[in-house]
Amino acid sequence: MEFRQIRYFLEIYKQGSFSKAASSLGLTQPALSRQIAVLEKELKQSVFDRNTRQLSLTEAGRRLLEKAVKLQDLWQETVESVSSLETRNGKAARIQGDFRISTGGTIAAYVLPQMIKKLRKAHPDLTLQIIEGDLRTSREAVIWGDADLGILTEEEYHSELEYRSFLEDEIVPVAAINHPLASRKTKIKARDLRNRDFVFYHPQSAIRRTVEAQLRKQDLLTHIQVSMELRSVDAVIRSVEAGLGIGFVSRRSARGLAILNCPELFARRRFSLCWRKSRPGLMNLVTALQDFSPGNEET
Fold first, then answer.
1. What are phi and psi of 32, to 5 degrees?
2. What is the pLDDT of residues 27-38, one digit of tens each?
3. Is the distance from CB of 206 to CB of 150 less than 8 angstroms?
4. At residue 49, what are phi and psi to the nearest 5 degrees?
5. Which of 29, 92, 122, 189 lies 20 to 30 Å (CA to CA) from residue 238?
6. Which CATH number fits domain 93-168+271-292: 3.40.640.10, 3.40.190.10, 3.40.50.150, 2.60.120.280?
């Protein structure tokens, strides 16, 4: 058995088809099929059920999947361990290597760019690839090895994952600067927003769930008009700027918009770093990210 066959098996499972996996891996479908056939011959078991319309795992495939993710982690840990043997002036080596971080649009656009700039200055051999996704896709990317780390807003328990606190954030209601409520100096009551148009994120968004909980608390959720449901931070900001409704964004991304003086709808949230327990070698990177997070970095 070769490690590349494990990698191919995982990619087929994640993509849901041989053709999509072959395209992702840069292989022809016959070449990929031959590698899986070799794997199955060695295991003396079929790992995929090819008799159904939708590709699925056999019992042997499910058992292999459980071990394959750990084998992938072990391989990555081995590479990182060997490549970090270098020392400089008798001190531990700087963080080096290529790592993938999956997170939402707010962190990807408004937090990580400046952090990465500082990290790269301290660790010039470090490369970070940012994969933007919602809460569910980011968590799954970490679980299945598509990402080394996730930066998530909810710590949903999973037996394979570790979490560490990263930063605090605040979601605020925003409107275009010429919106009738934008210039109000006195506090705005939640009830003042009844029957107004709102620009929301899509239902799977972590911000959407946070906002809906806050609206429900103020008995406002059933008294508003959702005029748009969008997938990206930028799309929400542009739509609010255009006067299409009131939106909710992180205070970090509210530049160019009016933050409505409605404390009843402000909502705090916490981001955490997340990684698989089988990747203890990531702790140096986790610590560095915590050290360089806004509010923690040295001035």
1. -65, -40
2. 899 999 999 999
3. no
4. -90, 110
5. 189
6. 3.40.190.10
